[in-house]
Amino acid sequence: MSSTTKRGRTAKKSSTKTARKPSRSRTQRTDKASGVTLPGKLEHWPLDKVKPYERNPRTHSDAQVAKIVRSLQEFGWTNPILVDKKGRIVAGHGRLLAARELGMETVPVIQLGHLSEEQRRAYVIADNRLALDAGWDEELLAEELRELKVSDYDLELTGFALDELNVLLELDESGGEGGGQEEPSRNGPVTRPGDLWILGRHRLLCAKPGDDAFGQLLEAAGKSRSACLAVTADADVCDGIIWGWQEATEKEAVLEKSGSTFDVVAAQRGVTRGE
Hints:
CATH class of the largest domain: Alpha Beta
Oligomer: single chain
Helix content: 40-55%
């Protein structure tokens, strides 16, 4: 009896030792030094399996999708679509639209199964918003563009519009501000009615309360509680706010519809800042 009990206890103890703890997904790892979760393996999914997020606040115009199409044709697919564990897009809505335009059968996907629902919703916004805080060293940018132009490369494949490229190349050829041929100037503000400026996490709109743009911005502001909204029909006031904000923050305001900085837009529109 005693030996049987002992054997039973021994068997129970042995069983406890061999029990395994649940393991993480085979496709996910964590960087030991930082604790950062690393992405899983790259997969190729049929387009129908990838689900757009119905509440994605980022918009994609036909013109922007056309740029993505040209970029994919030129450079190949360099940036996988990120999806959650349910197959919903976390980042890459524009790339999916471009893939449909190209008639692709599959797209490269990385699944971010470690995100909670709150993290997924936040990253849909963060992935787009964080990039807006980056700026340009316009002199170095102009040098790069000039060298590509010498090689007869299609500069529009960089994503810049022709008018933006012309301004940047003129800056380089004139040796920066104040050199070479003077930029044409006119009396009047840089801002025009309907312009929506991005000032960090804030928005500045030049419009009247009855304008369509005003209503659209109010609707967008209602979905985001983190940004301040300012609206004025006075373009000179807009310019003053932007100049003051840029000097105070040492950041650049960006025109929403083109992605161009305030200074580039000013040069495009032939406006120089008065003393």
